[in-house]
Amino acid sequence: MPELPEVESLTQFLAEHLTGRQVERVHPVSVAALKTYDPPLTALVGRTFAGATRHGKFLDLVVAPTVAPTIAPTSREDAGDPALHLVVHLARAGWVRWNDALPTAPPRPGKGPLALRVGLDGGSGFDVTEAGTQKHLAVYLVRDPHDVPGIARLGPDPLSSDITEERFAELLRSERRQIKGVLRDQAVLAGIGNAYSDEILHAAQMSPFKPAANLSDEEVTRLYQAMATTLADAVQRAHGLALRDLKAEKKSGLRVHGRTGEPCPVCGDTIREVSFSDSSLQYCPTCQTGGKPLADRRLSRLLK
């Protein structure tokens, strides 16, 4: 699943390649992926991209307003249309593919990975795709990104200047849930998913099952520093990479997530896994749980 570092790199790449480019055609191949109808996707045609930004794991492609007249407008039509936002949530298996020369023929709707195609002036453009049979990718065209329910519910970005250690401690103080779940909760912190929560907890030498409200001041400091360092390092590694290389870079940079059975790069112990119905977490017993394995149940405590 693309998380904050990958979506940040996507944002930087698309901001560079889209800004100033005019939309010539839009093909919504997967109707199920489109979550809004007003304005319609056809409203993008003829308009120009003004940049790209990120809200947690949501990609926000900003479309410039139409040119307003030089005289004072007398009606809404005279004032021109406001900016639009093409917002994409890539879910578990979504991605964006840039193409310097898109096919000229319209894509055929079907069961393939293609969900949306946007063609630009000059023949280039991008595809939004989703692999697998379970389709959760979501595309929105809105006038305000906060019209997207998922964005409206987001907590602060963990890499923003708003997240001081004091603010971070406040967010955790009232949480009785396990710290793994708190880090993944987008209403608490925007952008951290299953992979990077594993990496952050490993760097902080902390059990994923530890209740967030029980953290000592020293543990809060350690977790805060691990979060900032882990995410910043991942963003830096991904910076400037071609879109096709981002997934491989993410996988190669992970130390525990997805590495069940491999030796821990810190202590050499075997990385273990706890499986849930639709996901799993990985951790190092020596680094994180005092050498004790975690029971393979969602609400388990350390085995005694």
From TrEMBL:
Domain Formamidopyrimidine-DNA glycosylase catalytic: 2-111
Pfam families documented for this protein: Fapy_DNA_glyco, H2TH, zf-FPG_IleRS
Cofactor annotation: Zn(2+)
GO biological process, one term: base-excision repair
Catalytic activity entry: Hydrolysis of DNA containing ring-opened 7-methylguanine residues, releasing 2,6-diamino-4-hydroxy-5-(N-methyl)formamidopyrimidine
Ranges where the FPG-type domain occurs: 255-289
GO terms assigned for molecular function: 8-oxo-7,8-dihydroguanine DNA N-glycosylase activity; damaged DNA binding; DNA-(apurinic or apyrimidinic site) endonuclease activity; lyase activity; zinc ion binding
Alphabetic keyword roster: DNA damage, DNA repair, DNA-binding, Glycosidase, Hydrolase, Lyase, Metal-binding, Multifunctional enzyme, Zinc, Zinc-finger
Family: Belongs to the FPG family.
Protein name, entry field: Fpg/Nei family DNA glycosylase
Organism: Streptacidiphilus fuscans
